[in-house]
Design goal:
The chain is α+β, with helices and mostly antiparallel strands. Helices cover 30% and strands 25% of the residues.
Length: 76
């Protein structure tokens, strides 16, 4: 399991992020305060407070290693 903080403060960033993670296998969660949603769900992401960083948790190590270089634009 790997966790990091990302910022999705625009609609374009949310769409880009979902397009990036949706095709990958494995479970990923995004959390804001005490709310946690599926990181592949655009509707779930829009239900979070996007004005501050979100905690991304990738539950499979192989997915985390492939995804980490692609997420550099979102990591805070």
């Amino acid at each position: 399991m790997k966790s990091m903080h990302i910022l999705l403060d625009t609609v374009e960033k949310v769409k880009g992020f979902v397009n990036l993670v949706a095709p990958l296998e494995g479970d990923m969660d995004l959390g804001s305060d005490r709310y946690i949603v599926d990181a592949k769900s655009i509707m779930g992401i829009f239900s979070l407070d996007l004005s501050k960083p979100l905690k991304l948790t990738i539950h499979e190590k192989a997915s985390a290693e492939r995804l980490l270089p692609l997420l550099q634009a979102y990591i805070v």
